[in-house]
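Standup notes
- DV: blocked on the single-chain target, sequence here:
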Amino acid sequence: MTQIEIPLPEPTTAIEYYVDALEIAVMIGLHHRTVQQMARDGDIPAHPLGEGERKTWRFLRSEVREWMQRKVNSECHPCCSNRRKPN
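- DV (later): unblocked, structure below
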């Protein structure tokens, strides 16, 4: 009797779903309108849905997480307080 080789199934990856600005706002600690404005300005990774001037923005958590990591690990500005120093 001959053996038949059966291919192993490919490892499945979890499907990542798009989320709205409210979920991202909770994730990064900002107001959802601030997140929407950042999406319009191109400051945060986002995907527009719809045509015209008013778009609905959707986000992938993994892209926002990577974006946050790049911001935290950047060398552009050291962390500093906005509070005034006592006299």
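- Follow-up: The CA atoms of residues 30 and 74 lie 20 Å apart.
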